[in-house]
Amino acid sequence: MTPLDFAVRYTAVLILALIVVIFGIVAPAFLAPGSLMSTLKAASFIGIAAVGMVFVLLTAGIDLSVGSAMYLAPVIAGIAMQRLGIDVAPALLLCLLVGAAIGLVNAILIVRLRIVPFIATLAMLFLVRGLGIWSTGSRQIDFPASMRAFGQSALFGIPMPVIAFAIVAAAAHIVLAHTAFGRHIYAFGNDAEAARKAGLPVRRMQAAVYVICSTCAALAGFVLISQIGRIDAGFGEGREFDVITAAVLGGASLFGGIGSAVSAVLGAVTVQAVKAGLVYAGVNLYLQPIVQGAIIFLAVFLDGLRAIRMEKQARRSIRPLA
After folding, report:
1. What does the alpha-carbon distance between residue 95 and residue 78 come to, in Å, rounded to a whole number?
2. For residue 110, which of 5, 61, 151, 178 sits 20 to 30 Å off, Cα-Cα?
3. β-strand 141-142 against 230-231: which pairing, if any?
4. How far apart are CA 261 and CA 55, in angstroms?
Protein backbone atom coordinates (compact mmCIF):
# COMPACT_ATOMS: atom_id res chain seq x y z
CA MET A 1 0.00 0.00 0.00
CA THR A 2 1.46 3.34 -1.08
CA PRO A 3 1.45 6.35 1.30
CA LEU A 4 -1.24 7.99 -0.84
CA ASP A 5 -3.44 4.90 -0.70
CA PHE A 6 -2.95 4.76 3.07
CA ALA A 7 -3.87 8.45 3.43
CA VAL A 8 -6.99 8.05 1.28
CA ARG A 9 -8.08 4.91 3.13
CA TYR A 10 -7.60 6.35 6.63
CA THR A 11 -8.41 9.98 5.87
CA ALA A 12 -11.10 10.21 8.54
CA VAL A 13 -8.79 9.00 11.30
CA LEU A 14 -5.97 11.28 10.16
CA ILE A 15 -8.22 14.34 10.03
CA LEU A 16 -9.61 13.67 13.52
CA ALA A 17 -6.11 13.16 14.93
CA LEU A 18 -4.91 16.38 13.26
CA ILE A 19 -7.84 18.36 14.66
CA VAL A 20 -7.25 17.03 18.18
CA VAL A 21 -3.54 17.85 18.02
CA ILE A 22 -4.04 21.37 16.63
CA PHE A 23 -6.72 22.40 19.11
CA GLY A 24 -4.85 20.64 21.92
CA ILE A 25 -1.85 22.88 21.22
CA VAL A 26 -3.86 26.08 20.71
CA ALA A 27 -6.20 25.48 23.67
CA PRO A 28 -4.89 22.83 26.15
CA ALA A 29 -8.24 22.88 28.01
CA PHE A 30 -9.72 21.18 24.93
CA LEU A 31 -7.92 17.96 25.94
CA ALA A 32 -9.20 17.89 29.51
CA PRO A 33 -11.13 14.65 30.23
CA GLY A 34 -14.28 16.57 31.07
CA SER A 35 -14.05 18.54 27.82
CA LEU A 36 -13.54 15.41 25.74
CA MET A 37 -16.53 13.72 27.36
CA SER A 38 -18.66 16.82 26.75
CA THR A 39 -17.60 16.78 23.10
CA LEU A 40 -18.51 13.12 22.77
CA LYS A 41 -21.85 13.72 24.49
CA ALA A 42 -22.63 16.63 22.16
CA ALA A 43 -21.67 14.50 19.15
CA SER A 44 -23.97 11.65 20.16
CA PHE A 45 -27.19 12.90 18.55
CA ILE A 46 -25.53 13.84 15.25
CA GLY A 47 -23.74 10.49 15.32
CA ILE A 48 -26.96 8.54 15.79
CA ALA A 49 -28.53 10.30 12.80
CA ALA A 50 -25.31 9.84 10.78
CA VAL A 51 -25.47 6.09 11.37
CA GLY A 52 -28.85 6.04 9.65
CA MET A 53 -27.54 8.29 6.87
CA VAL A 54 -24.72 5.83 6.18
CA PHE A 55 -27.31 3.18 5.29
CA VAL A 56 -28.83 5.53 2.71
CA LEU A 57 -25.49 6.69 1.31
CA LEU A 58 -24.39 3.08 0.83
CA THR A 59 -27.20 2.75 -1.74
CA ALA A 60 -26.08 5.99 -3.47
CA GLY A 61 -29.19 7.73 -2.11
CA ILE A 62 -29.60 10.73 0.15
CA ASP A 63 -32.09 11.88 2.79
CA LEU A 64 -32.53 15.61 3.27
CA SER A 65 -35.49 15.21 5.64
CA VAL A 66 -33.55 14.01 8.68
CA GLY A 67 -33.55 17.44 10.35
CA SER A 68 -37.32 17.64 10.04
CA ALA A 69 -37.71 14.07 11.31
CA MET A 70 -35.61 15.10 14.33
CA TYR A 71 -38.22 17.79 14.95
CA LEU A 72 -41.60 16.18 14.22
CA ALA A 73 -41.08 12.80 15.92
CA PRO A 74 -40.10 14.26 19.33
CA VAL A 75 -42.87 16.87 18.98
CA ILE A 76 -45.48 14.12 18.71
CA ALA A 77 -43.89 12.33 21.67
CA GLY A 78 -43.85 15.57 23.68
CA ILE A 79 -47.50 16.28 22.97
CA ALA A 80 -48.36 12.74 24.08
CA MET A 81 -46.36 13.20 27.30
CA GLN A 82 -48.18 16.45 28.05
CA ARG A 83 -51.73 15.42 27.18
CA LEU A 84 -51.71 11.70 27.94
CA GLY A 85 -49.17 11.68 30.75
CA ILE A 86 -47.12 8.84 29.29
CA ASP A 87 -43.63 8.13 30.63
CA VAL A 88 -40.27 8.36 28.86
CA ALA A 89 -40.18 4.76 27.54
CA PRO A 90 -43.59 4.88 25.76
CA ALA A 91 -42.73 8.35 24.47
CA LEU A 92 -39.48 7.02 23.03
CA LEU A 93 -41.34 4.17 21.32
CA LEU A 94 -43.88 6.62 19.87
CA CYS A 95 -41.04 8.84 18.65
CA LEU A 96 -39.39 5.91 16.87
CA LEU A 97 -42.68 4.88 15.25
CA VAL A 98 -43.23 8.39 13.90
CA GLY A 99 -39.69 8.40 12.54
CA ALA A 100 -40.26 5.03 10.87
CA ALA A 101 -43.48 6.37 9.32
CA ILE A 102 -41.60 9.34 7.84
CA GLY A 103 -39.03 6.96 6.39
CA LEU A 104 -41.80 4.77 4.97
CA VAL A 105 -43.26 7.75 3.11
CA ASN A 106 -39.80 8.54 1.74
CA ALA A 107 -39.48 4.92 0.64
CA ILE A 108 -42.83 4.98 -1.17
CA LEU A 109 -41.92 8.16 -3.01
CA ILE A 110 -38.49 6.85 -4.04
CA VAL A 111 -39.03 3.13 -4.54
CA ARG A 112 -42.65 2.92 -5.70
CA LEU A 113 -43.11 6.28 -7.44
CA ARG A 114 -39.47 6.40 -8.61
CA ILE A 115 -38.93 10.02 -7.59
CA VAL A 116 -35.28 11.07 -7.36
CA PRO A 117 -34.19 10.79 -3.68
CA PHE A 118 -32.93 14.38 -3.60
CA ILE A 119 -36.30 15.77 -4.73
CA ALA A 120 -38.43 13.37 -2.68
CA THR A 121 -36.63 13.99 0.59
CA LEU A 122 -36.37 17.73 -0.07
CA ALA A 123 -40.15 17.86 -0.39
CA MET A 124 -40.48 15.80 2.80
CA LEU A 125 -38.15 18.22 4.57
CA PHE A 126 -40.69 21.03 4.16
CA LEU A 127 -43.77 18.82 4.58
CA VAL A 128 -42.63 17.20 7.83
CA ARG A 129 -41.46 20.47 9.37
CA GLY A 130 -44.71 22.10 8.34
CA LEU A 131 -46.66 19.36 10.10
CA GLY A 132 -44.61 19.89 13.24
CA ILE A 133 -45.13 23.66 13.24
CA TRP A 134 -48.86 23.23 12.57
CA SER A 135 -49.25 20.69 15.39
CA THR A 136 -47.58 23.00 17.92
CA GLY A 137 -48.83 26.33 16.59
CA SER A 138 -45.12 27.28 16.42
CA ARG A 139 -45.04 27.25 20.23
CA GLN A 140 -42.29 25.84 22.40
CA ILE A 141 -42.96 22.50 24.10
CA ASP A 142 -41.51 21.88 27.55
CA PHE A 143 -40.92 18.24 28.42
CA PRO A 144 -41.48 16.85 31.95
CA ALA A 145 -38.65 16.50 34.46
CA SER A 146 -38.48 12.74 33.82
CA MET A 147 -37.22 13.51 30.32
CA ARG A 148 -34.35 15.63 31.63
CA ALA A 149 -33.57 12.98 34.23
CA PHE A 150 -33.17 10.45 31.42
CA GLY A 151 -30.89 12.74 29.40
CA GLN A 152 -28.73 13.71 32.38
CA SER A 153 -28.38 10.18 33.77
CA ALA A 154 -25.22 8.11 33.43
CA LEU A 155 -24.14 4.49 33.69
CA PHE A 156 -20.70 3.78 35.16
CA GLY A 157 -19.90 7.45 34.62
CA ILE A 158 -20.82 7.36 30.92
CA PRO A 159 -23.66 9.77 29.95
CA MET A 160 -26.83 8.12 28.65
CA PRO A 161 -26.65 9.90 25.23
CA VAL A 162 -23.17 8.42 24.68
CA ILE A 163 -24.46 4.96 25.62
CA ALA A 164 -27.35 5.32 23.19
CA PHE A 165 -24.89 6.37 20.47
CA ALA A 166 -22.67 3.37 21.20
CA ILE A 167 -25.60 0.94 21.09
CA VAL A 168 -26.86 2.30 17.76
CA ALA A 169 -23.37 2.26 16.22
CA ALA A 170 -22.70 -1.29 17.45
CA ALA A 171 -26.05 -2.55 16.13
CA ALA A 172 -25.40 -0.90 12.75
CA HIS A 173 -21.93 -2.45 12.59
CA ILE A 174 -23.34 -5.91 13.23
CA VAL A 175 -26.02 -5.45 10.58
CA LEU A 176 -23.66 -4.10 7.92
CA ALA A 177 -20.71 -6.38 8.58
CA HIS A 178 -22.28 -9.67 9.65
CA THR A 179 -25.69 -10.06 7.98
CA ALA A 180 -26.92 -10.85 4.50
CA PHE A 181 -28.89 -7.60 4.51
CA GLY A 182 -25.67 -5.65 5.03
CA ARG A 183 -23.88 -7.49 2.24
CA HIS A 184 -26.82 -6.83 -0.07
CA ILE A 185 -26.61 -3.10 0.67
CA TYR A 186 -22.93 -2.99 -0.27
CA ALA A 187 -23.60 -5.04 -3.41
CA PHE A 188 -26.38 -2.71 -4.51
CA GLY A 189 -24.30 0.39 -3.82
CA ASN A 190 -21.37 -0.92 -5.84
CA ASP A 191 -23.42 -2.06 -8.83
CA ALA A 192 -27.20 -1.64 -8.71
CA GLU A 193 -27.84 -3.35 -12.03
CA ALA A 194 -25.74 -6.38 -11.12
CA ALA A 195 -27.59 -6.64 -7.80
CA ARG A 196 -30.91 -6.69 -9.64
CA LYS A 197 -29.71 -9.34 -12.09
CA ALA A 198 -28.47 -11.42 -9.15
CA GLY A 199 -32.01 -11.49 -7.79
CA LEU A 200 -31.38 -9.42 -4.67
CA PRO A 201 -34.50 -7.82 -3.11
CA VAL A 202 -33.35 -4.34 -4.11
CA ARG A 203 -36.72 -2.62 -3.71
CA ARG A 204 -37.26 -3.88 -0.18
CA MET A 205 -33.66 -3.05 0.63
CA GLN A 206 -33.98 0.53 -0.65
CA ALA A 207 -37.17 1.01 1.30
CA ALA A 208 -35.59 -0.37 4.46
CA VAL A 209 -32.62 2.01 4.45
CA TYR A 210 -34.89 5.08 4.37
CA VAL A 211 -36.96 3.72 7.24
CA ILE A 212 -33.75 3.07 9.20
CA CYS A 213 -32.45 6.57 8.44
CA SER A 214 -35.59 8.39 9.62
CA THR A 215 -35.89 6.18 12.70
CA CYS A 216 -32.31 7.03 13.66
CA ALA A 217 -33.06 10.73 13.06
CA ALA A 218 -36.09 10.51 15.36
CA LEU A 219 -33.98 8.85 18.05
CA ALA A 220 -31.31 11.54 17.61
CA GLY A 221 -33.89 14.28 18.20
CA PHE A 222 -35.19 12.48 21.28
CA VAL A 223 -31.67 12.12 22.69
CA LEU A 224 -30.91 15.82 22.20
CA ILE A 225 -34.21 16.96 23.71
CA SER A 226 -33.59 14.73 26.73
CA GLN A 227 -30.57 16.94 27.41
CA ILE A 228 -32.23 20.35 26.98
CA GLY A 229 -35.79 19.55 28.04
CA ARG A 230 -37.63 21.63 25.43
CA ILE A 231 -38.26 21.95 21.72
CA ASP A 232 -39.09 24.95 19.55
CA ALA A 233 -39.93 25.57 15.89
CA GLY A 234 -36.27 25.93 14.90
CA PHE A 235 -35.20 22.62 16.42
CA GLY A 236 -33.33 20.39 13.98
CA GLU A 237 -33.33 23.02 11.23
CA GLY A 238 -30.29 22.59 9.01
CA ARG A 239 -29.10 19.52 10.92
CA GLU A 240 -29.33 17.42 7.77
CA PHE A 241 -26.14 19.13 6.58
CA ASP A 242 -24.31 18.24 9.80
CA VAL A 243 -25.48 14.65 9.46
CA ILE A 244 -24.43 14.27 5.83
CA THR A 245 -21.11 16.00 6.53
CA ALA A 246 -20.43 13.66 9.45
CA ALA A 247 -21.19 10.55 7.40
CA VAL A 248 -19.08 11.62 4.41
CA LEU A 249 -16.24 13.05 6.47
CA GLY A 250 -16.10 9.75 8.34
CA GLY A 251 -15.58 7.80 5.13
CA ALA A 252 -19.00 7.10 3.60
CA SER A 253 -19.25 7.85 -0.12
CA LEU A 254 -21.91 9.90 -1.87
CA PHE A 255 -21.49 7.52 -4.81
CA GLY A 256 -22.58 4.48 -2.80
CA GLY A 257 -20.99 1.21 -1.74
CA ILE A 258 -18.48 2.67 0.72
CA GLY A 259 -18.99 3.38 4.41
CA SER A 260 -19.66 1.76 7.77
CA ALA A 261 -20.94 2.50 11.25
CA VAL A 262 -17.41 3.56 12.11
CA SER A 263 -17.75 6.26 9.45
CA ALA A 264 -20.62 7.81 11.36
CA VAL A 265 -18.75 7.67 14.66
CA LEU A 266 -15.56 9.24 13.29
CA GLY A 267 -17.43 11.87 11.31
CA ALA A 268 -19.74 12.96 14.14
CA VAL A 269 -16.87 13.22 16.62
CA THR A 270 -14.81 15.17 14.07
CA VAL A 271 -17.59 17.67 13.36
CA GLN A 272 -18.26 18.25 17.05
CA ALA A 273 -14.54 18.41 17.87
CA VAL A 274 -14.16 21.22 15.36
CA LYS A 275 -17.10 23.13 16.84
CA ALA A 276 -15.83 22.68 20.40
CA GLY A 277 -12.25 23.46 19.40
CA LEU A 278 -13.26 26.73 17.78
CA VAL A 279 -14.99 27.76 21.01
CA TYR A 280 -12.02 26.77 23.21
CA ALA A 281 -9.63 28.56 20.84
CA GLY A 282 -11.73 31.73 21.04
CA VAL A 283 -12.28 31.98 17.28
CA ASN A 284 -14.58 34.81 16.25
CA LEU A 285 -18.21 33.66 16.29
CA TYR A 286 -18.78 35.02 12.78
CA LEU A 287 -15.82 33.06 11.40
CA GLN A 288 -17.01 29.70 12.70
CA PRO A 289 -19.54 29.08 9.85
CA ILE A 290 -16.71 29.71 7.37
CA VAL A 291 -14.61 27.01 9.00
CA GLN A 292 -17.57 24.62 9.07
CA GLY A 293 -18.22 25.33 5.38
CA ALA A 294 -14.59 24.53 4.64
CA ILE A 295 -15.05 21.20 6.42
CA ILE A 296 -18.04 20.36 4.22
CA PHE A 297 -15.98 21.21 1.13
CA LEU A 298 -13.15 19.04 2.44
CA ALA A 299 -15.55 16.14 2.99
CA VAL A 300 -16.89 16.30 -0.57
CA PHE A 301 -13.38 16.77 -2.02
CA LEU A 302 -12.03 13.74 -0.16
CA ASP A 303 -15.04 11.70 -1.23
CA GLY A 304 -14.32 12.55 -4.86
CA LEU A 305 -10.63 11.74 -4.43
CA ARG A 306 -11.50 8.43 -2.82
CA ALA A 307 -13.82 7.54 -5.70
CA ILE A 308 -11.14 8.36 -8.29
CA ARG A 309 -8.53 6.23 -6.52
CA MET A 310 -10.90 3.27 -6.21
CA GLU A 311 -11.87 3.53 -9.87
CA LYS A 312 -8.20 3.41 -10.89
CA GLN A 313 -7.56 0.42 -8.65
CA ALA A 314 -10.59 -1.36 -10.13
CA ARG A 315 -9.22 -0.81 -13.63
CA ARG A 316 -5.84 -2.27 -12.66
CA SER A 317 -7.49 -5.33 -11.10
CA ILE A 318 -9.19 -6.35 -14.35
CA ARG A 319 -7.18 -9.15 -15.96
CA PRO A 320 -6.85 -9.25 -19.75
CA LEU A 321 -8.36 -12.14 -21.62
CA ALA A 322 -5.97 -15.02 -22.32
Report:
1. 9
2. 178
3. antiparallel
4. 9
